[in-house]
Amino acid sequence: MAKVLLVDDDDLLRCILTEVMISQGYEVIEAADGRPVADMIIREEPDILITDLIMPEQEGLKTIQQARALRPQLPIIAISGGGRTVSTDFLQVALIMGVNATLTKPFDHNQLVALVDQFTGKAKAA
C-alpha cells in the first residue's frame, strides 16, 4: 500500500482528502503545516508528498525545498488556491522548484487521485 504524506493547514480539506485517498487504498499521514515534514519524510518514508503552498507556520515552498534535499526523487504535488494579499503565482514557482504536478484549488478529487495513482505506479498496476 502506497503511503501519502498530505500537508495542508485547512483541517476540513485535509480530512476530506485523507478520506478520499484512504478510499482509494492509500495509507495517509497528515501534517497541518510544513514544520514536521522533514522528520516525517525520514521516519515515515512516504511514496508521495502532497503539499499546500500557503500555510501560516511553514509554507509549502520551503517544505518542497526540504523534501527535495532529503529525497530528490520523491514525487511532489503542490496544491494552492492562491494568497489573499499576494499576487505571485506560487504554483508556477513550485513547478520551477521541480514538483511533479500542481493543482489549483478547488479541484476535482478525481484529478488528485489520478495524479497520485500515476506517480505511485498504481495506475499501471490497476
TrEMBL record:
Keyword Phosphoprotein part of the UniProt annotation: yes
Modified residues (4-aspartylphosphate): D52
Protein name in the entry: Response regulator
Gene3D superfamilies: 3.40.50.2300
Presence of the UniProt keyword Phosphoprotein in the record: yes
Domain Response regulatory: residue ranges: 3-120
Any single GO BP term: phosphorelay signal transduction system
Keywords: Phosphoprotein
